[in-house]
From TrEMBL:
Belongs to the YkuD family. Pathway: Cell wall biogenesis; peptidoglycan biosynthesis. Keywords: Cell shape, Cell wall biogenesis/degradation, Peptidoglycan synthesis, Signal, Transferase. One of its GO terms (molecular function) is carboxypeptidase activity. Residues 179-188 have a biased composition (Polar residues). Residues 195-234, 243-253 have a biased composition (Low complexity). The keyword Transferase applies. This is Murein L,D-transpeptidase YcbB/YkuD. Residues 1-29 form the signal peptide.
C-alpha cells in the first residue's frame, strides 16, 4: 500500500526534519567556531597583509597533548526522543595528556660577595734574589773589564813600530831586550791591573801570556786609559818586580787619571745602597694583594734601588705620595687601605726628618749628623736600616694598591650578581711600579689613576660639598600625604621646609622670593607649585606638581649620610666603566629612568625610558651600537616563551597563531603553535623560534636600536606610551623602551627625525648601519650629574643594588683589615 502525503502534510514533515537537523547541529557548530577561532584571525590578518603567509590551524595535525577523536552526539531528533536527526558525528580533540607543561627560566641571582684575598709572604726570597743578582752583575762586570783590558793590551802591542816589534818576544815575566827587567815587568803588570779578589790571578795570567815591549813608553800607552786605571792599580805590583823604579811614573799617571775622571763616576759593578741593605729584607713580611706582591718582587729583583728612601731617610717623593694616599677619601676610596707606618725614629716636620740619637747609637760610635738617618731611643743602626727597608716595601705595595683600586675599583662587579656584566680592567702593575720610580711628580701620577671624565670630577666636587655640610634634624611629613595644586593641607609648611633643606643652591636662588614670602600657610599656591615642580625635576621625578608618596620619599627619606654614600658608590661604579666614555655615547641610567645621547658640540638629548621590572631586571653592561631597524620583528626571548607563553599555550594551543606570532623550526619552516612539543622546548630538547610580526601592535613599536649582547637587551619604541608618565618606570622584561625613539635613532644615525619617519613609512622591515663607534652604557647610578647642569642628582635604589655593593665593599674592608 502506497502512502501518499498531501502537500501540506509533506511541507509540515519537511519543516520538522529541517528543525531537527538545525537543533542537533548547533552545538557542534558553536564548538567548532570556538575551536577554530584562530582561523578567523588568520583570515583577518591575510586580508590586512596580503603579502604575508599565515598558517591556518585547521590544516595542522592535532595539537601536542591532544588526539583526533570521533565523537557521537545524541539527542535532538524530531521530538527530542531519537529518530531522524538523533545522531551527529564530528571529529574533535580530546586531551590525552592531562598534565600541562610546567617550566620556568630563573632570573640571574645575587651572590654572597667573595672579596680579593690578601696574602702574606716572607721577603727572604727577595733578599736572596737581590743578593744573587748583585753578585752576578759584579762578576759579569769584572769579566767584561778584564776582557776589555786584555784587548787593549793586545791592541797596544800590535800598534808598535816595526823597528821595536822585532825586539818583542815571549819570555814569561822577564823581557830579553836590553831594557830593565823591572821596567818591563811593571809595564806588563799595569796593563792588566787588579780586579777585585781575582787580582793575583789576573796578574799571573798576564805574565803567562804577555807580549813584552822593550820601550817603556809602551807601558805608558797601555795604562793611559783614564777610565780604567787608578792609583790603586799602580800600587798593586808584587814586591820584587821593579816597583821602586816605576813608582814615580805610576804616581804621575794616577794623578793625571784622578784629574781626568769625574768625581761622580760610579763603577757599575759597585753595589747599590739597596743591594747593600738587601740582607735587611730577610725576616720581613709583606701583606698585600697577590698581584701587588708579584709586581713589588719583580721590580726590586730587576732594579734593586730605593724608590721611597733617599740618603738613609724618607724621601720627599714618599711624603708627597703619602699625602695622596691619605686623601683617598676625597675620591671615594678608603685611606685605611693605603696607610703606611713611618719609620719609628722619623717625625714629620715640614719636608725634613728629625732624627733622635740614642745611647745605643752613641755606644756604636755613630755620629749624629742632620743629613744622615740615625736611630731613635732603643733603636740601633741595623734596626733603623731594617725599618727603612720595611717602609720601602710597604710604601710600594700601598702605592700600587691605590693605583689598582683607582683604576678598576675595589669590587669585582661580576661577583655581585648575574645582572652585572662588567669585565674587570687589566692594570699592568709592572709598568705602574716603574712609572712610580721614574716619576718626578708622583702626586700628579697617582691622582691621574682615577677616572678623568667630567662626571667623575663633578662627583668629587659634590662629595666635597656634602662633607662640608652638617646634618640637621630631619623634617617629617605625615604618611599618605597627597596635595594637589589649589588644595589646602597642614603639611604644606613641612613640604616647603623639606625642599629648602634638600634642594640645590641653584634652586634656592631661583625661588628665593618664594621662600622669603612664604608665611607658613596651608594653601598650595601657584608659586609653591612651581617650586615643587622644579624640585621634582631636580630629584628625577615626574614634574607634575603633585606632592605624593614618591615626592615625599625624596624629601624625608634621604639624609646627608645617604647622599654621601650614594656618591661614593657612584665613584666605585664609574671605575668599572672605560676610562674614556667616548665623545659620542648613549648613557642609560636605570634608577633615573633616563637615556641621554651625548656628543661634543651639541646639547645632550635626554628622554625618559622604561626599564625592567624587579623580577626582570635590566643588566648593567656596555657595548657599541650597530644598527637601527625599522618596522622590526620581535624575536621573543626563550625566558618569555617558557615563563609567559607556554602557560597560555596550555589553555589554547593556537594562542601564538591567533596573536600574530610566527613560529618556525631551526631550519626556518613555519609551523602552527599547536603542532609544537612545548614540553620539549621547555626542557631545551627542541629549538623553536617565535617572533611577532611588524605592525602597530608589535611590542617593539616602529623601530629598535641594536647593540648585540648576550642579554638580548636593546632600545626600542613601544605602543604603551602611558607608562612614561609614571615616576617609577620599571615595567619591561629587561629591554629599554624609549620615550622618543625617532629622536634617538636620528641622533645615532646622524640624520634628522624626518628621515627616520620616512624610513618607517615605507612599511618594510629594513635596517641602517650606524656609522662610527658609539658606545652605549646600560648603567646603574643612584647619584649622577645632570648632563646639562652638572649638578648631582639622587635617585631611588630600584633594584637594591646599592645595598649589595655596600655589602661587597664591607667584605673587602674586612678582608684587608680583618
Amino acid at each position: 500500500m502506497t502512502f501518499r502525503m498531501r502537500g501540506h502534510r509533506a511541507a509540515f514533515v519537511s519543516a520538522l526534519l529541517a528543525s531537527a537537523v538545525v537543533m542537533s547541529s548547533q552545538p557542534v557548530a558553536a564548538e567548532g567556531a570556538d575551536r577554530f577561532a584562530g582561523a578567523r584571525s588568520v583570515e583577518r590578518m591575510r586580508s590586512e597583509n596580503p603579502g604575508r603567509s599565515y598558517y591556518d590551524p585547521r590544516a595542522e595535525r592535532a595539537p601536542q597533548g591532544y588526539r583526533h577523536q570521533r565523537r557521537e552526539r545524541r539527542g535532538g531528533g524530531l521530538f527530542g526522543w531519537g529518530g531522524w536527526g538523533s545522531q551527529s558525528k564530528d571529529y574533535d580533540y580530546d586531551r590525552y595528556d592531562p598534565e600541562p607543561v610546567k617550566a620556568h627560566v630563573s632570573s640571574p641571582k645575587y651572590y654572597t660577595y667573595k672579596p680579593d684575598e690578601l696574602k702574606t709572604v716572607s721577603l727572604d726570597a727577595l733578599s736572596r734574589a737581590v743578593a744573587e743578582a748583585a753578585l752576578k752583575r759584579q762578576q759579569e762586570a769584572a769579566e767584561a773589564e778584564a776582557a776589555r783590558r786584555d784587548a787593549q793590551a793586545r791592541a797596544a802591542t800590535t800598534e808598535q813600530s816595526p823597528e821595536r816589534a822585532g825586539d818583542v818576544r815571549l819570555t814569561g815575566s822577564i823581557a830579553a831586550s836590553g831594557d830593565s827587567p823591572n821596567d818591563q815587568t811593571t809595564a806588563t803588570d799595569r796593563a792588566v791591573p787588579e780586579t777585585g779578589s781575582g787580582a793575583a790571578n789576573n796578574t799571573g795570567s798576564a805574565n803567562a801570556t804577555n807580549a813584552t815591549a822593550a820601550d817603556p813608553t809602551a807601558a805608558d800607552s797601555t795604562s793611559a786609559d783614564p777610565a780604567t786605571t787608578t792609583a790603586a792599580d799602580a800600587q798593586s805590583v808584587p814586591a820584587g818586580s821593579g816597583a821602586d823604579a816605576a813608582a814615580p811614573a805610576a804616581a804621575d799617571d794616577a794623578t793625571a787619571l784622578n784629574d781626568a775622571t769625574p768625581e761622580t763616576a760610579v763603577n757599575p759593578a759597585d753595589p747599590t745602597p739597596f743591594e747593600r741593605d738587601a740582607e735587611m729584607l730577610a725576616g720581613l713580611k709583606l701583606r698585600a694583594l697577590p698581584e701587588v706582591i708579584d709586581a713589588v718582587e719583580a721590580y726590586y729583583t730587576k732594579k734593586p734601588a730605593f724608590v721611597w728612601v733617599e740618603d738613609g731617610k724618607v724621601s720627599d717623593k714618599a711624603r708627597a705620595a703619602m699625602k695622596v694616599l691619605a686623601a683617598a677619601g676625597t675620591v671615594g676610596l678608603d685611606p685605611a687601605d693605603y696607610a703606611v707606618e713611618m719609620p719609628r725614629d722619623t717625625v714629620a716636620m715640614g719636608n725634613s726628618d728629625v732624627e733622635v740619637a740614642s745611647n745605643d747609637a752613641a755606644n756604636d760610635g755613630v755620629v749624629n749628623d742632620a743629613s744622615t738617618a740615625l736611630s731613635a731611643p732603643g733603636l740601633g743602626v741595623r734596626e733603623r736600616e731594617r725599618d727603612l727597608m720595611r717602609f720601602e716595601m710597604e710604601m710600594s705595595a700601598a702605592a700600587l694598591t691605590y693605583a689598582l683600586d683607582a683604576q678598576r675599583g675595589r669590587v669585582d662587579a661580576d661577583r655581585i650578581s648575574g645582572y652585572h656584566d662588567l669585565p674587570r680592567h687589566d692594570v699592568d702593575l709592572d709598568v705602574t711600579m716603574a712609572s712610580l720610580a721614574a716619576s718626578d711628580d708622583v702626586t700628579a701620577y697617582l691622582e691621574a689613576r682615577n677616572p678623568s671624565s667630567k662626571e667623575f670630577k663633578e662627583l668629587v666636587a659634590a662629595l666635597a660639598m656634602l662633607k662640608m655640610q652638617s646634618e640637621e634634624a630631619p623634617v617629617t611629613i605625615a604618611a599618605n600625604t597627597l596635595i594637589k595644586p589649589g588644595q589646602s593641607d597642614p603639611e604644606m609648611a613641612n613640604v616647603v621646609k623639606a625642599i629648602e633643606r634638600k634642594a640645590s643652591e641653584d634652586l634656592k636662588t631661583d625661588h628665593a622670593d618664594t621662600f622669603d614670602t612664604y608665611d607658613g600657610g596651608q594653601t598650595y599656591t601657584p608659586e609653591l607649585v612651581s617650586l615643587v615642580k622644579d624640585y621634582q625635576r631636580e630629584a628625577g621625578l615626574s614634574a607634575d606638581g603633585v606632592v605624593g608618596p614618591n615626592t615625599v620619599r625624596t624629601m624625608v627619606g634621604m639624609t646627608l649620610d645617604s647622599k654621601v654614600e650614594k656618591v661614593k658608590l657612584a665613584m666605585e661604579r664609574l671605575r668599572w666603566l672605560p676610562r674614556d666614555l667616548g665623545e659620542r655615547r648613549v648613557f642609560i641610567n636605570q634608577p633615573a629612568f633616563t637615556a641621554t645621547y651625548v656628543q661634543q658640540g651639541r646639547d645632550p638629548l635626554s628622554m625618559r625610558v622604561v626599564v625592567g621590572k624587579k623580577s626582570n631586571q635590566t643588566n648593567f653592561f656596555y657595548d657599541h651600537i650597530k644598527t637601527v631597524e625599522f618596522n622590526p620583528y620581535w624575536g621573543v626571548p626563550y625566558s618569555i616563551i617558557v615563563n609567559e607563553m607556554i602557560p597560555k599555550l596550555n589553555n589554547n594551543p593556537y594562542y601564538l597563531d591567533e596573536s600574530g606570532y610566527e613560529v618556525t623550526t631551526v631550519n626556518g619552516r613555519q609551523v602552527s603553535s599547536a603542532s609544537v612539543d612545548w614540553r620539549a622546548v621547555a626542557a631545551k630538547k627542541q629549538s623553536i623560534n617565535v617572533r611577532q610580526l611588524p605592525g602597530h601592535s608589535n611590542a617593539l613599536g616602529e623601530l629598535k636600536i641594536l647593540f648585540p649582547n648576550k642579554h638580548h637587551i636593546y632600545m626600542h619604541d613601544t605602543p604603551a606610551k602611558s607608562l612614561f608618565q609614571r615616576a617609577n618606570r620599571a615595567f619591561s622584561h629587561g629591554c629599554v623602551r624609549l620615550q622618543d625613539p625617532k629622536a634617538m635613532a636620528a641622533a645615532v644615525l646622524g640624520k634628522d627625525k624626518t628621515y627616520v619617519s620616512e624610513r618607517i613609512a615605507q612599511g618594510k622591515n629594513d635596517a641602517d648601519t650606524v656609522a662610527g663607534n658609539i658606545p652605549v652604557y646600560v648603567s646603574y647610578f643612584t647619584a649622577w650629574p645632570d648632563a646639562k647642569t652638572g649638578k648631582v642628582q639622587y635617585f631611588p635604589d630600584v633594584y637594591d643594588r646599592d645595598m649589595y655593593l655596600s655589602r661587597a665593599i664591607e667584605a673587602t674592608r674586612k678582608a684587608r683589615h680583618g
